[in-house]
Write a structure and sequence with these properties.
Strand order of the largest sheet of chain C: 1-2
CATH superfamily of the largest domain in chain A: Sodium/glucose cotransporter
Number of strands of chain C: 2
CATH architecture of the largest domain in chain A: Up-down Bundle
Distance between the termini of chain A: 99 Å
Number of strands of chain A: 7
Strand content of chain A: under 5%
Structural class of chain A: mainly alpha
Largest interface: A-C, 38 and 37 residues
Structural class of chain C: mainly alpha
CATH class of the largest domain in chain A: Mainly Alpha
CATH topology of the largest domain in chain A: Sodium/glucose cotransporter
Order of helices and strands of chain C: HHEEH
Number of domains of chain C: 1
Radius of gyration of chain A: 43 Å
Oligomer: heterotrimer
Chains: A mainly alpha, B alpha/beta, C mainly alpha
Largest sheet of chain A: 5 strands, mixed
């Protein structure tokens, strides 16, 4: 069943099945019941990463390097783990800005620069061509081998046949047709291809089943399980080496690491990966499932690679069969025709999947970022006056797809035979990695500029071409070999594979090191030597701060235009019918009955720009909309002016927005501050009214007695003396009150001066007791001190602390019964603090009053007998002083049994050691 | 003519000055340092005039004023409020409670004495209180 | 900015763990000629570590969501 006609028939039947899947998906999408909006389908579509390289080439690589094929998948696994962070940001940006490709993404980031878009496109096309040629090589080789059945013969060398007889040529042609049929049937404003994604996911399943099938067949039917294969291989010295190949002849750890890094980049920056992972993503949440499901897929498809490689090497005599074909030739050698056919279909799946997505992605880039900007800028084409450009756009893409596959074919002719599959693929990986600095830098560093990106891309690409592409050409005989071996003009230092004498690495690692140094270096230098333009700054902010944005980016168009003009413009690129559809829907959304009712305001212009951006890219869309909004024939000068002005406006409006936000924040703060002020004002009113009350009391007495003394000159001397005494006492009270109010105000407003020093509380306590001894004696109260002999120093203001102690001592004296009164002052270190207690055996304070006494103007005393002569501010001030130095002041008391006023102060940092010494002593 | 004047004031020095002024004007005085004490004296001393500080401990001057006004047997007692804050709100509350007049601290002694004399010269004061007193005696 | 969640920290840690597992010198430990159950140790190690990473990722991402 492996005759040529049968294989071809099955192949076409399979392709037909793919079309059916795509058609079904498109139909479901049109009904609004997307089948690709599903995390499983999304994860499977990412498996377009596994191409014919994986399918055939991994085994080839394993046959020479052992596990050396794995970094390609391990790196991708690591990146996927971070997918929720990196990829999600790219998906969000892409959705908000209607980005259509990798080139569009980079161009958009750096100020919608058409130049950058073009450069990215050129790099991508040149870089990916080898990769496309790899697929062609794989499919045509596998087809020819299959045709040779039952013999197992390696096909003729590429280029040895006439083009018209070369299978690879027809494979390229057919693949171009598939890609055209899949990707360019219609223009979509979002540049999404539901049918294509569904077909890719299906293909991923097929190639997985096929590879696992052949793996199981080789491991368990040809051999007696994995153990059997490895046991036999261990008997062959050439294979035994491959079981622990690292650090040996097959590859250094440096190579391993660089290959891992390379694939970490490739999984995002290969155009097809960007297409399926970012552009075709329908829901950010799918990234979560893909983060582990896609790595699991890669693990599964790689499990049997080494066993198949060893199985092949054991089965075929050395050098007779290319290891890249073991997957196919092993079942053929066993006459397992069904398995062989399954393998061929699996390989076809892997290759077509890659080619379709890659060429569609590249053709979009070529059309939007290379051809259209050029066409629109060349007046001779009068493109700006054409009525309907949608078919032109499609034609450009179709032509691009054909050109890409033909390019791939010619690269195959040129260099295809010189390298194994994997080496060809890695050259493309290294090219894709050149996008990493510009994209990752652009995602996270606002300062990355257009100049930097341009410099980095060009430098990296140049080094890539010099160190990888030229040697590939040389190896294929297209360039002189001396160029590689001796260096250009015989300068050994410039040998492409040992640049500046860097030897001992494999070619890819060598190229990666130099190209990344050049790329990152140029990006950084370019970004810092020139300032960003306003437009760049706006785009940079849009990208880096994408999570802070709520809706779509704001419109920047100043000039108003008519709705019909915009509709006509969009119609020229998307087709008139589609434009009518879009504008009618938009009108309905805005609550207008018809398109004519719509005003051509900036929102509508922005809407039109976004639709166009989805089709022709951001840079071109801006140019096109500018022609309508200004109603002027297009000239490059005008366009540049408009773009410049528009950018200024964006920058300006962006600044305005920022300012508005700042203003809002400030308003909020002011409101809060006002509330606080109101509250403070209320407190201040309370305070003032209390203070006035307290001031009025002594004032009243003073005034009353002064008047009495004045009006009654004939008072008897004793009474006169008594009244004068009262006046003096009340005057003192008034003075004290005023002083304390001022003191408290100073402390509360932070204006008080503190002279902080390390103090010995013991010494201060003794001095305070001495100072108050007269008061105690006069009241008949005894004082006793129980002070710890040594306590750690505390940080405080000496005078203030003295004030606290004097206050507590005089309070104690005041509330003790004369005669039996007894006051005890205690001082001790207490953990990280030093504590002072002043205990009296006076009247005590009831529980409810214990909290009140520390408030301003709260005095508690036995009013039946005597009013306390204090001001009611002393304890409030004390508490603030202690609090200022990080301590607490509190009271413990029971009515009738006296009170203990205590405060503590934290030990000064420098004194902690001393404290420990004391504790140990 | 000598009258009975009750002075309720918690600030001893102010109390002393009021006592002196009232005695100087020829009145008989009793003093209280808080609301409870004043209430007891109202019942036993039956003053013609009560000078009440508005912020007394235990029972405020306002409360005392209300009690006096609620007692028909004390219909002839005049009430003079002493207020420290001088805010119109305090005065309103005093008038509401039934005070006949008020004086703000710090006061001018002559003004205070004049107000006291005016209140005690009220023609309706004498018959009512004296009659009762006569009955009780 | 939103505060990164615990899950975010776990995933980043997993990424770093992966970088460690698939790198020198850990690889060198397993780069020996020995076999486990007849299968080369390096081969077994790579796939087991890889599988472990995937399982942990699945547990972190899908668990409790």
């Amino acid at each position: 069943m492996l005759q040529g006609w049968f294989v071809v028939t099955v192949s076409f039947a399979y392709i037909g099945l793919l079309f059916a899947v795509a058609w079904f998906a498109d139909r479901r999408a049109a009904q609004g019941r997307s089948i690709i909006s599903n995390a499983w389908v999304y994860s499977l579509s990412l498996a377009v990463y596994a191409t014919a390289w994986t399918f055939y080439g991994s085994v080839g690589r394993a046959a020479t390097d052992g596990v050396g094929f794995l970094p390609t998948y391990l790196g991708a696994t690591l990146t996927m783990l971070l997918g929720w962070f990196v990829l999600r940001k790219m998906v969000r940006i892409t959705r908000l800005n209607r980005i259509t490709s990798l080139a569009d993404f980079v161009a958009s980031r750096y100020g919608k620069s058409a130049l950058i878009g073009g450069v990215v496109t050129v790099i991508a096309v040149i870089g990916i061509l080898p990769y496309i040629s790899l697929q062609l090589k794989a499919v045509s080789t596998s087809f020819q081998i299959l045709l040779g059945y039952p013999a197992i013969a390696m096909p003729a060398k590429a280029g040895s046949l006439e083009v018209m007889q070369d299978t690879a040529f027809y494979v390229a042609l057919f693949m171009a047709l598939f890609a055209i049929a899949f990707g360019t049937r219609q223009l979509d404003a979002a540049e999404r291809h539901e049918g294509m994604v569904a077909a890719i996911a299906f293909e991923s399943l097929v190639k997985l089943v096929a590879f696992l099938g052949v793996g199981v067949y080789v491991a368990f039917f040809m051999y007696d399980g994995l153990g059997d294969i490895f046991a036999r291989a261990a008997g062959r010295p050439d294979l035994e080496v491959l079981m622990a190949p690292l650090g040996g002849a097959a590859g250094s750890y440096a190579n391993w690491v660089w290959l891992t890094i390379l694939s970490m980049f490739a999984i995002i920056f290969l155009p097809r990966q960007f297409q399926v992972a970012v552009i075709e993503n329908t829901d950010e949440r799918h990234l979560k499932r893909a983060a582990w499901l896609f790595p699991l897929y890669m693990l599964a498809i790689n499990v049997f690679v080494l066993p198949i490689a060893f199985g092949g090497a054991l089965h075929f005599p050395a050098g007779e069969v290319d290891a890249d074909t073991f997957v196919l030739t092993l079942p053929m050698a066993q006459k397992a025709e069904g398995v062989a056919l399954l393998v061929f279909i699996g390989g076809l799946s892997a290759a077509t999947g890659m080619v379709i997505v890659e060429t569609i992605a590249l053709s979009t880039m070529i059309c939007n970022d290379l051809v259209m900007p050029l066409l629109l800028r060349i007046r001779a084409f009068r493109l700006t006056e054409m009525r309907d450009l949608s078919s032109l756009l499609l034609d450009i893409r179709r032509a691009a797809i054909i050109a890409l596959l033909m390019g791939g074919y010619f690269y195959y002719l040129l260099a295809g035979e010189a390298y194994a599959l994997v080496s060809i693929g890695l050259i493309s990986f290294a090219a894709a990695a050149q996008f990493a600095p510009a994209v990752i830098g652009g995602l996270y560093w606002r300062g990355g500029t257009r100049t930097g990106a341009l410099a980095g891309l060009c430098a990296g690409f140049a080094v890539w071409a010099y160190t990888l592409l030229l040697p590939a050409f040389a190896k294929s005989g297209w360039l002189g070999v001396e160029f590689v071996e001796r260096g250009p003009f015989g300068i050994e230092l410039l040998r492409p594979t040992q640049l500046f004498g860097l030897a001992g690495l494999d070619q890819i690692t060598h190229a990666m090191i130099w190209s990344m140094i050049a790329n990152v270096g140029a990006y950084l230098v370019g970004s810092v030597i020139r300032r960003q333009s306003a437009a760049e700054h706006v785009q940079a902010t849009l990208f880096v701060d994408v999570y802070q944005q709520t809706g779509e980016p704001g419109s920047s168009w100043r000039g108003a235009t008519s709705a019909s003009a915009l509709q006509t413009l969009v119609g020229r690129f998307l087709g008139p019918a589609r434009a009518v559809e879009l504008f009618t829907a938009y009108a309905r959304l805005r609550g207008a009955k018809s398109v004519d009712e719509l005003e051509g305001d900036r929102d509508l212009v922005r809407f039109a720009e976004l639709q166009l951006a989805g089709t022709i890219g951001a840079a071109s869309a801006r140019t096109m909309v500018a022609t309508v909004a200004q109603e002027e024939p297009l000239g490059l000068e005008e366009v540049m002016t408009i773009i410049d002005e528009a950018s200024q406006v964006i920058a300006y409006s962006h600044r305005l927005e920022e300012q508005q936000q700042e203003l809002e924040a400030a308003t909020q703060e002011l409101k809060a501050a006002n509330e606080r002020l109101k509250e403070l004002d209320r407190l201040k009113d309370d305070f003032i009214s209390t203070v006035t009350h307290e001031l009025r009391t002594p004032l009243t007495s003073i005034r009353a007695f002064s008047e009495i003394l004045h009006d009654n000159p004939d008072l008897d001397p004793a009474e006169r003396q008594r009244f004068l005494g009262l006046v003096i006492r009340e005057s003192e009270r008034l003075t004290r009150l005023i002083n304390q109010v001022l003191d408290l105000a100073k402390i509360e407003s932070g204006l008080a001066e503190w002279r902080t020093a390390e103090l010995d509380l013991r010494e201060i306590a003794l001095e305070a007791v001495n100072a108050t001894s007269a008061i105690f004696k006069s009241r008949g109260v005894t004082v006793e001190t129980r002070l710890a002999p040594r306590v750690p120093l505390v940080l405080a203001d000496r005078d203030r602390l003295m004030q606290v102690l004097l206050n507590l001592l005089s309070n104690a004296a005041k509330f003790c019964t004369p005669g039996t009164g007894r006051v005890v002052v205690r001082l001790e270190a207490d953990g990280g603090a030093v504590r002072v207690d002043v205990q009296d055996n006076g009247v005590g304070i009831s529980r409810e009053n214990q909290a009140l006494i520390f408030e301003k103007f709260r005095q508690v005393g036995d009013t039946l007998t005597d009013k306390p002569s204090g001001t009611g501010l002393g304890l409030a001030i004390c508490r603030r002083i202690v609090g200022h130095f990080g301590g607490r002041l509190w009271v413990e008391s029971e009515p009738g049994r006296g009170s203990v006023f205590s405060f503590d102060l934290p030990v000064a940092a420098g004194a902690r050691g001393a404290e420990r010494l004391v504790a140990n002593a | 003519m000598a009258r009975r004047v009750l002075i309720a004031e918690d600030e001893p020095s102010i109390l002393a000055s009021l006592e002196f002024l009232m005695r100087k004007a020829g009145h008989e005085t009793r003093s209280a340092a808080d609301g409870e004490e004043a209430l007891g004296l109202v019942a036993t001393f039956r003053p013609h005039l009560a000078i009440l500080d508005i912020m007394l401990p235990r029972r405020s001057g306002l409360e005392l004023c209300r009690i006096i006004r609620a007692d028909p047997s004390l219909a002839g007692t005049r009430v003079l409020m002493l207020t420290a804050k001088g805010g119109s709100r305090d005065i309103d509350r005093g008038v509401e409670a039934g005070a006949d007049d008020y004086v703000t601290k710090p006061f001018a002694t002559q003004d205070l004495v004049a107000r006291v004399q005016a209140l005690l010269a009220d023609p309706f004061l004498r018959p009512a209180l004296d009659a009762r007193r006569g009955e009780g005696a | 900015m939103r505060k990164p969640s615990l899950r975010a920290y776990r995933i980043v840690s997993l990424f770093l763990l992966g970088c460690l597992l698939f790198n020198y010198p850990v690889l060198a430990v397993f780069n020996v000629g020995a076999t486990a159950a007849g299968i080369p140790v390096l081969y077994v190690y790579l796939f087991v570590a890889w599988g472990l990473l995937i399982a942990l990722a699945a547990a972190i991402i899908e668990g409790g969501s």
